[in-house]
Amino acid sequence: MTDDIHETPSTTPNFRTELAAQLADLIPEAIADGKVDVEKLKELLDGDVADGVERFGLFWPGKKRAMRAAQEPTTATLKPDFENSKDWDTTKNVFIEGDNLEVLKILQKHYHAKIKMIYIDPPYNTGKDFVYPDNYKEGLETYLEWTRQVNEEGKKVTTNAETEGRYHSNWLNMMYPRLKLARNLLTDDGVIFISIDDHEIDNLLKLGKEVFGETNHVTTFVWKNKTGGGNDSKDVTSEHEYCVVFARNISRVTKLTSAVDNADTYTLSDEYVEERGRYKVEALYRSSLRYSDSLFYPIQAPDGTQIMPNDSNPESTKHIWRWSRDTLAQKIREGRVEFRQTANGWRVFSKQYLLQDDDGNPRTKGLRSVVDMVGSRRGTEEVKALFKGQKLFDYPKPIDYLKHYVKATTSGDDLILDFFAGSGSIAHAVMSLNSEDGERRRVISVQLPEPTEEGSAARAAGYDTIAAVARARIGLAAQQIKNEVAGQLSTGRMPDLGWRAYALRETNFSKWRFSSDVDEDALQQHLLSLRDSATDDATVDDLLTEILLKQGYSLTEDISPAEIGGLDVRLVRDRDGDVAVLAYLNEHVKPTLEQLRALVDESPAKIIALEDAFQGDDELKTNLAQLCKSKGIELWTA
Q1: Cα–Cα distances in Å, from 611 out to 10, 461, 515, 525, 588?
Q2: 174-222 confidence digits (pLDDT tens)
Q3: Which residues touch 56 (CB under 8 Å, ≥6 apart)?
Q4: What is the distance between the alpha carbons of residues 282 and 350, in angstroms, rounded to a whole number?
């Protein structure tokens, strides 16, 4: 019977175990008695192993424990927050309140290799606003301690002063496990953008090259974010920040481009303006040191006269046409050539369209390493405008600055992640960009419920946490975008301006909460003492969300309630509208065999039931397993 029933895993993947399994599959001779034989592995790798203990790399106190923080599985889950959501049933955007390390672990199962772009604006480690605790546990316990504003010793955790002696190490220990987990989420052609200033730029570059690989460093943008830095530096006035970019696999990343920025030179219009935009003209001839007879030929003007490429300079023998005869004929048919009569006779020009190049492809230019397009003050003004002049958040990134990177990297329904969401700037930028170009990009934002300061404008306005400010800002931005584009959409539809809200919580299942490293007898005694699988305060939606996440489903599945055979169930539908999952999650009402038969008759791909719903009736569970097997339905318990 056990072969016909699958059990939902209690934790996120154990990365140490998975890595060992991958090594066993790749190099079976390096596995002895179920463990990795490191000496054998070195022998097999031979010349590829670093020689001796002296080697180049980034090392700091706590690095090994920080690595283990990334590898440690979690039993935590995400609780749906319907009250703080918008357009729950239709949106594909997500906002998560919680510690980003735990959330990144939870996202691993479904979102592995599915995120096209990650943008983060982590703490700059100025010694004043570094709020992530560093006690090397880095798990749910740390998160819960932090939300109570004390560490394990009861000491408040609010700063990371240079006088601590572990100034840079603390920051690296916070960043390292998060970047390790983030890398797993990127698509093969995905990229991560990390904003930073001078405090940690050198360490971030070294850390990024270790996590992503030295060859996968795409570039480091220098953002001229202001003019005049006041007294922010004792030596020189600082007018810039950085944005470091790494790729999952740089060989798969296409060139980062943006739209042309000299649009004011494209002043002419023709019948193709809707499709190609305005145009300017360029002379069709060119000077060439490599003369070619095939490019030196007469072109017939509208009045039948002949135009030669050297007509403007008859003494020149180096002027030739840009195109061959056949290409010219094609461009004339496409309306990409213009004849003009001048005092010196006819001249022929190519039309250079704003939106298309000569081949009909979108006209773009490569991103420049120095970004001088909008100052940081713009971001502050944008957020203040949304909140009617109230300054509720310090130093948010300007929307146009973020759109510059998002547009260069994503299109279609690509997925974007920001796990240091702050005031929700990336979510705002993605919604705004989608409203402009008609794409369907999706965004996941993660923000720690960092308390707003006592006496701050945010606290006075009723926002107790930065996460609450972010949700409010995204909602106000969505309404602003809706007002701006209503009735003016070239795509004929409104962009996705909603989000599903979730909050990080402990597992809903009592049997999964006990630590896995306790004495076996104590664990057995604990399990015997449990009356129910799930905690009493967990709703059906809470349970279903946790089970789906741990089985590898997304946070935006199509879920609906239903009544089948007198049982309250949840249905999860696939893209075609078929029932992918049918879940019965009421452990207090034992179903009859006929009711279970009614569930099977719905022919879902999978049925999920709480173990305690059978209330110890193994015969009933066996009968359900046989019914499912007869119809090719997977049966899962939790």
Answers
A1: 13, 46, 21, 19, 11
A2: 899 999 999 999 999 999 999 999 888 999 999 999 999 999 999 999 9
A3: none
A4: 5
